[in-house]
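Structure first, sequence second, as always.
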């Protein structure tokens, strides 16, 4: 007697958003190369002993998770869309005991430039349940499991960043202009007064836990901001002021480190010019990106977002 295939019923939908302070290319590699997926795609304390990942449309996305007691959970997946480094869509079939098919998961990963540079990762996952008795407990813990798994992803990306081999420096330059309805003295204060700058540069509201902050704006003076982001990445901004002309010009050299690795050295020129109704702010930056760190416009995007935040902060204080 034949047995009909189980009927699938809609399950929950999950959505996760994480800001990762590394280039999109690195995040995409972490999702599409088996040696990386094996290190992160399982919640603690599970491991991934078997994996087969093919980062192409129609490619396999198969893996097995194993508990500390040796219990195994198999997953068979297929890559439906693959558009590096911005979009990946995977259809997964998840199996339980005795290879019983428990549910399907349709997972969409979208990678866009992050609000503070780096990458914003958005994950949307929808489920079709085939074995409700087995799926109930598995799906009840899905959100917590994903949180642990994405913590693992952050650690793997940090490891990948540290493993990047030395490569020729890449150079970039950009200029950003903002017309602000505030006096030059008010804008100057936002860049040179520690309390005023803390309201828009390195705010906890953006998911940054400030570890150290210091500032001394004078020729030869230094500024430093060290913070830990929600993905576990530690960023370290270190600047030295070279030219300081009150309310007109600020020139400084700065370096950026991620998890103690030097990723860039830059020269920035900030100019403020009075104009009708306020002032024009012009920021010009030349940067050298080091040892395989590919910026691809992330620094310009992140700096533009910072200047937008500056404008919002000045406007809010004026209300």
């Amino acid at each position: 007697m034949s047995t009909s295939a189980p009927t699938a019923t809609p399950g929950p939908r999950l959505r996760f958003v994480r800001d990762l302070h590394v280039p999109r290319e690195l995040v995409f590699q972490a999702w599409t190369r088996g040696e990386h997926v094996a290190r992160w795609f399982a919640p603690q304390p599970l491991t991934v002993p078997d994996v087969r990942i093919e980062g192409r449309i129609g490619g396999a996305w198969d893996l097995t998770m194993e508990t500390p007691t040796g219990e195994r959970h198999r997953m068979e997946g297929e890559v439906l869309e693959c558009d590096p480094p911005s979009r990946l869509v995977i259809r997964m079939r998840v199996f339980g005991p005795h290879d019983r098919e428990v549910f399907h998961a349709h997972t969409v990963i979208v990678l866009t430039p992050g609000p503070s540079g780096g990458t914003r990762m958005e994950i949307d996952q929808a489920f079709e349940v085939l074995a409700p008795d087995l799926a109930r407990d598995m799906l009840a813990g899905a959100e917590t499991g994903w949180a642990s798994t994405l913590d693992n992803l952050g650690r793997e990306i940090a490891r990948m960043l540290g493993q990047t081999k030395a490569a020729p420096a890449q150079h970039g330059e950009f200029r950003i202009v903002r017309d602000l309805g505030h006096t030059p003295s008010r804008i100057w204060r936002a860049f040179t007064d520690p309390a005023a700058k803390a309201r828009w540069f390195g705010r906890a509201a953006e998911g940054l836990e400030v570890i150290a902050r210091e500032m001394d704006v004078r020729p030869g003076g230094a500024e430093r901001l060290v913070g830990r982001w929600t993905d576990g990445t530690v960023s370290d901004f270190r600047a030295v002021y070279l030219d300081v002309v009150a309310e007109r010009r600020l020139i400084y050299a700065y370096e950026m480190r991620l998890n103690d690795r030097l990723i860039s050295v830059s020269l920035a020129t900030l100019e403020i010019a009075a104009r009708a109704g306020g002032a024009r702010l012009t920021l010009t930056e030349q940067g050298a990106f080091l040892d395989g760190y590919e910026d691809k416009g992330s620094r310009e995007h992140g700096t533009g977002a910072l200047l937008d935040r500056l404008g919002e902060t000045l406007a809010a204080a004026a209300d």
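Margin note: The first helix runs from residue 24 to 32.
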